[in-house]
Design a protein that fits this description.
Elements lengths: L8 E8 L7 E7 L7 H4 L5 E6 L2 E6 L4 E5 L2 E7 L2 H20 L11 E2 L3 H5 L15 H9 L9 H5 L4 H11 L1
Length: 175
C-alpha cells in the first residue's frame, strides 16, 4: 500500500475576493511542501501555467483558478468556508492520486504557459460574423479562454473545411 504524499491541506485563512464581491479566497497550507509533486501536477489538462523556478502552478477550475506554491494553496471565488474546506480536501486527494500515478507520467521540467487571447484569435476565422453570439472573434477568443464558449460554437471554424488546420490547432491548444 502506497503512502499518501500529503495528509491534508489545512485552512490557513480566508480573504475577501475582489474579483467576485460576496465570495472569498481560501488560503491553505499543505502538511508537506508540494515541490516534488508539482512537476507531475503540471501534466494535468487543466493547467493554466507552470513555473518550475520558483515553483508555482495555476490550475483552471469553474469558476476561477487554483494556485499552488510549495507551501501555500490559494482558491478564489469560493462561496463560503464549507465550500473552501471541501475544495482543499478534494485538492489533497487529487495531489495524492497524481503522486500515486507519477510513474506513469512524464514530469514537466520546463515553464508552461496557457495560450493568450491573441494566440487563440490568430487561429479563428476573423470574420466577426457574430454567429457564436459575440460581436467579434477577439471577444470569442476571450470567451474560449474563460470557458464561457466551446470551440464548436464557432460555426465558420467547424463548418468550413478550409479552416480544418486551424480547428485542429485550436483543439490541441485546449486539450
Amino acid at each position: 500500500m502506497s503512502v499518501a504524499f500529503i495528509e491534508s491541506i489545512a485552512l490557513e485563512k480566508t480573504l475577501p475576493c475582489l474579483a467576485e464581491p460576496g465570495e472569498i479566497i481560501v488560503v491553505g497550507r499543505p502538511s508537506r511542501g508540494l515541490d516534488d509533486v508539482m512537476p507531475y501536477l503540471a501534466t494535468l489538462p487543466n493547467v493554466v501555467a507552470y513555473n518550475p523556478q520558483p515553483p508555482s502552478l495555476t490550475l483552471r477550475r469553474k469558476p476561477g483558478l487554483i494556485t499552488l506554491q510549495p507551501d501555500r494553496v490559494s482558491i478564489p471565488q469560493v462561496t463560503d468556508v464549507a465550500e473552501g474546506m471541501q475544495l482543499l480536501t478534494s485538492l489533497a486527494e487529487a495531489i495524492n492520486a497524481t503522486w500515486k500515478h507519477r510513474a506513469e507520467l512524464v514530469a514537466v521540467t520546463a515553464r508552461r504557459q496557457a495560450p493568450k487571447p491573441l494566440d487563440v484569435w490568430a487561429f479563428l476565422p476573423q470574420t466577426n460574423c457574430g454567429l457564436c453570439g459575440e460581436l467579434t472573434c477577439m471577444a470569442f477568443a476571450f470567451g474560449l479562454l474563460q470557458q464561457h464558449h466551446a470551440l464548436m460554437e464557432c460555426h465558420v471554424l467547424t463548418e468550413d473545411e478550409g479552416f480544418a488546420d486551424r480547428r485542429t490547432a485550436l483543439q490541441a491548444m485546449f486539450n
